[in-house]
Amino acid sequence: MFTSDVAESRQKTVVLQDMDADVFEEILSYFYSGTIYVSLDKVQPLYQAADLFQLDYVKTACKKYMAMNVDSSTCVDLYRFADFFSMDNNAAFFSMVAVRSRSLIFICKFFAEVSHTEEFYSLSVNQLTEIISYDKLGVKEETIVWEAVVRWVQHSREDRLHHLPSILPHIRFNLLTSDDTAAILEHPLVKEIPGSSEVSNLAVIPKTSNPKRRIGMDAQEMLLLFRTIGTDTTQMLCYNPTSKLYTTYSYGRHYFDMRREVYTQFKVLTATVTSNNDIYALVEESHDKLALFQYIHLADKFEKKSSFHREKPEHSPRQHIRAGRSKPSDKAIEYLVEVDGHLYYIAVHVTSQSKERRISMVMKKYRYSTDQWQDCSKPSADKQPCSVVVSSGKHLFLITNTEMHRYDPSQDSWSKVTPPSPNLEPCTAVAMGTEIFCTDAGLRKISVYNIEEDSWSELPGCSGLYLKPTLFVFEGQLHVCMHNEQIYLYDRSEGAWKYLLTLPDGPWGIRGSMLPVAYMYVYNPTS
Q: Positions of the region Disordered (predicted)?
């Protein structure tokens, strides 16, 4: 600008239009330091400034940050922004086309929620029609789509009413009841459309020729299990014990590592499902390195989020080299759980040699915004060999033979609560409502902890055989999956376990002491 023969080279003052002073200060600092700090509130103006000044590194940093921070609260805004700048057809993951595509996936997933936001009402007509035309819209009823269109039109009625005839063909009338269809045709907005008889024609098209169902209409609650034996240890089983429908997914074929698509295989150590129905898996990349993966439902693939190093236990018995002395052993049980909206990694190490046994714990919190892990406080060590971790709402609980510890994430602190009855030897636990159910490896009895009352009670179990059970909650009822892959339902009114079924196409493994349950979009179910 200053060295070529343009008007600015002859001016004492150059005005940068639509450039915020704070943003320019960040850019100017980058010129000298080579470092840029990105945050959610300034990532878009920073990208615009970088685009103006042709700063490719800053643009890439902004695109990476946007891609990592797409969620239900940001997806519409980032979709609109990325749509404007998506003329860059770079095939790399960190392109605006990829940010736009990722944002669209989240809009489809949270459509019922985001369609009530101001950002949604600011969509253009082309953006709106693109969204509602998707098969992968996560809605249970087509009326949700129609109601979203009504709100969008009414937000600026005079300017948008004339777009309604081009929007209505994307409403799938074959998925509506006759009463719902009649209500749409009688809606005041439709009545105002010139030539509204054309809308009536849309509603009477034979149902066999209309578009297919939205994917959200066929979502089912399903158990998630992973292959443990055989050559293909990268299969995930999604199973519904009620309908007996299931599907298997070979998740090791490919995944996104946030830069490129990678074809490889990985073995899941443990997995969890968050309150937003997000599936996260912990993967062993190497002996001392773990990676976090997220399953993107509507994209039907796993995406690598971050990696971190395994920490060794704090207590390690001394090495003995004299003949006849056993070598120390270290057994770790690893958990991935959600507590109060945040993801935590917990490893409970049991190190032992001869009669000496110690427990130590590693605990880390995952920060979604930065894709980083941070250390958390740990409870005091316990010498009991059996322990289990369970999450319930806003707290995390560690249950041992003789103690129970509660973690408060808001304070990053642990406290002791009422312990279970002696000799519980906890093997598995699950939370349901305000109760935590816990049992041993033989399912001899069920110990029940009331969170609100800080008290324990007991329920009948099964025989004292070594069943290695895993408790889980499905459709609001307590279930257990045995080591032999048989599933039982607990009938609390009768105080008895009832056999339901045996898992198909085994063997399948349960990672940790919990069995994840998620709402899954079933693409090719089998019965």
A: 307-327
> What is d(CA 495, CA 461) in angstroms, rounded to the nearest whole number?
8
Locate the DSSP E strands across 244-324: 246-250, 255-256, 261-262, 268-273, 279-286, 289-296, 301-309
Closest CA to 408 of 395, 419, 393: 395
- The answer to whether the beta carbons of residues 251 and 302 sit under 8 Å apart is yes
Instruction: Name residue, tokens 């190093």.
Output: 309
Residue 3, CB-side half-sphere exposure with 13 Å CA sphere: 0
AA identity, residue 525: P
Interatomic CA distance for residues 487 and 501, integer angstroms:
6
* 422 upstream amide cis, omega within 30 of 0: no
CATH number for region 7-209? 1.25.40.420
Query: Residue type at 324?
Result: G
What pLDDT band is residue 508 in, cutting at 50, 70 and 90? Answer: confident
Amino acid code (one letter) for 399: I
Measure Cα distances from 193 to 172, 301, 511 in Å: 19, 42, 57
Give the CB-side neighbour count of residue 159, counting CA atoms within 13 A.
8
Tell me the C-alpha distance between 462 and 513, whole Å: 18
**Same CATH topology for 7-209 and 217-521?**
no
Q: Give the percent of the chain with pLDDT over 70.
A: 81
Lookup: tokens for 50: 């970088």
CB half-sphere exposure, 273, CA atoms < 13 A:
18
Over range 281-305, report the average pLDDT. 84
- Token pair listed for 316: 């390690």
Rounded Cα distance between 50 and 86, Å, is 15
- Give the helix ranges, DSSP H, for 110-261: 111-114, 118-121, 125-132, 143-155, 157-160, 164-167, 178-185, 188-191, 197-203
Residue 191 is predicted with a pLDDT of: 85
Sign of CA dihedral 266, 267, 269, 271: positive
Closest CA to 64 of 25, 32, 27, 92: 92
CATH of domain 217-521: 2.120.10.80
Give the chain's largest Cα–Cα span: 96
User: What confidence score (pLDDT) does residue 418 get?
Assistant: 94
Q: Give residue-wise pLDDT tens across range 301-350.
A: 788 888 888 876 555 444 444 444 445 555 678 899 999 889 999 988 77
- Which residue, among 251, 255, 246, 254, has the nearest Cα to 234 in the 3D structure? 251
The amino acid sitting at 492 is: R
> Over 50: is that where the pLDDT of 259 sits?
no
H helices of 381-435, where? none
Q: How far apart are CA 441 and CA 464, in angstroms?
A: 9
Q: Is the pLDDT of residue 356 over 50?
A: yes
For the chain, give every domain's residue range: 7-209, 217-521
Task: State both tokens at 170.
Answer: 């994307």
Q: Strands 395-400, 387-392: parallel, antiparallel or unpaired by DSSP?
A: antiparallel
